[in-house]
Amino acid sequence: MKIQLQQPIKIKSMELKSVNTNMVFPTVRAAGDNRTKKPVLAGSQSEFQSEDNDIFEAEVIETPPPSQQKEKPKAFIEANTEQVTLKHLKDDCIIPVFRDNEKTVSHFEFIDSVNFVVNQCFKNETILEPDIRVSHKINGRIPSALNKKVSELEEWEKTKYYERMMFLIEVPSIADTIHGNELSLTIGGVRALNHESLFSKKSIEKFKVFIGFTNKVCTNLCVSTDGILLELRVSGLQDLIKNVYDLVGNFNMRMQLDTMREFGKYALTEHQFAQMIGKARLYQYLPADQKKEIPPLSFNDSQFNAVARDYYLDKSFCRDQKGDINLWKLFGLFTGANKSSYIDSFLGRSVNAYTFTESLLQALEHESQMSWFLS
Fold first, then answer.
1. CB atoms within 10 A of CB 126
2. Domains of the chain: which residue ranges?
C-alpha cells in the first residue's frame, strides 16, 4: 500500500487512543525487498517498519489533476437512431435493389454526392465530416448460412443495411450570432427506403435535401421553406447532384437569418402561450374544411408536452421572469421537441416549426389566419 502525502505532517499534539491489537495491516514490500513491513508513525513522518526494526520512509506520490473530459455533443436527432461513419456505410452495408435487381442509390453515394457539391460550392471554407444517423436496421445472412442458428453466425455471414438515414455537413466558417446563439451553415439530407417501391421495377427515387443552420447551443436544426426539397425525385446520381447544386445556389442565407432575428422582437405572454398549446392540441381534431383555413401544424401531443415542459425548464429557451417568451425561444422549443421525430418525418417538422413561428409573428403584427391559435 502506498500512502499519498502532499507535505510532511507536523504533529503539535496527539490524543492517545486505545489500539486494536487484532487489526490486520496490509503488507507492503519495497522494490527488490522481500521483507514484510507494517506502517507506523515515527516522529513527524509517515514511515514503514520492517520485522527487523528497520525504518523506511514512505514514498510520496504526486496525484495528477483529473483530466477534463469534453462534454459529448448532443445529437441533432435522437429518436431511435444511432451514429455511424461514412466508411461503415461504404464497406459494411449491402445495397438494396429493386425487383429487377437494379440497384438503388446507396446511402454512401447520396452522402458522397452532396459532400461533393458542398466542397465545390464552398471551396475556401472549413467543412466538417458528415454527421450521420441511421435507424431501422435490416438484417440478413448469406446463402451458405441459411440453416445456422443466430448465435452460430459469423460476422462475415451477416448482412445489413439501414432503411432510414439522415446526415448533416456543417460549414462552421460560415456562421452568425442570433440573440446570443451561434448558428453555422449546414447542408444535409434524408433517405427513407420505406418510401420507395422496392418490390417493383426500378423507378424514380425520392430524397430530401436541405440547406439551413445548426444552432451550436443545442444542435437544433433551423430550416426554412426556401432551403429545403422535401420530395426530390431523381433518376440517378447526376440528376441528384444537379438539383443539390440548384438548391445551394438559390438559397437566400441572409433572408433566413434576418427572419430568425425578427423572431426575437416579438413575444407571447404566458396566457397566449397557454392558449397556443391548448389550441395546438385541438388542431388535429378540427373538421377538414376548417383545418384547410389554418396553416398546418404537424407536431404530435408528446412534442407539445415537451414544448410546455421546456417553457419552464429549458436553460436556453425558457420563459422570462414575467412569463413571456419571445418567438426565437419558442422556435427553439419546437426545434428541440422535433428531435424525438423519426428520420422520415424530421425535416418536414423542422420546416413546419419555422413556418409556424413565422405565422405567429404575422398574427402578433396584425390579424391573420394564425390568430386562431392565440384567440
1. 12
2. 1-69, 82-260, 264-373
Give the span between the Cα atoms of 212 and 178, in whole angstroms.
14
Q: How many Cβ atoms sit within 10 Å of the Cβ of residue 313? A: 9
Q: Report how far residue 119's alpha carbon sits from residue 100's, in angstroms, rounded to the nearest whole number.
A: 35
Cα–Cα distance for residue pair 373/283, rounded to 1 Å? 9
Residues written for the chain = 375
247/228 Cα distance (integer angstroms): 8
The pTM assigned to this predicted structure is: 0.77
Which of 102-116, 138-152, 200-214, 273-287 shows the lowest mean pLDDT across its residues? 138-152
User: What is the per-residue pLDDT for 7?
Assistant: 47
* Torsion over CA: 194, 248, 79, 150 (sign): positive
State the helix-helix crossing angle for 253-263 and 327-337, rounded to 10 degrees: 110
Grid coordinates in use for 260? 430568425
Reading the block at residue 261, the C-alpha cell is 432575428
Q: Alpha-carbon distance 187 to 214, whole Å?
A: 9
Question: What CA–CA distance (Å, rounded) separates 171 from 214?
Answer: 10
**Looking at residue 172, what is its pLDDT?**
96
pLDDT per residue over 74-113, tens digit each?
A: 788 887 899 999 999 999 999 999 989 999 999 999 999 9
- Compute φ and ψ for 150, nearest 5 degrees: -60, -40
Q: What is the DSSP letter of 234?
A: E
Give first-to-last CA distance, the chain, whole Å: 73
Query: Is 266 exposed, middle or buried (CB count within 10 Å of its CB: 0-12, 13-18, 19+)?
Result: middle
Mark residue 179 as left, alpha or beta (left: phi above 0; alpha: psi -120 to 50; beta: remaining): left
Give residue 302's pLDDT band: very low, low, confident or very high (50, 70, 90): very high
Q: How distant, in Å, are the alpha carbons of 11, 25, 218 from that of 42?
A: 11, 17, 58
Question: Is 352 exposed, middle or buried (CB count within 10 Å of its CB: 0-12, 13-18, 19+)?
Answer: buried
Q: Where are the alpha helices (DSSP H) in 55-134?
A: 86-91, 107-121
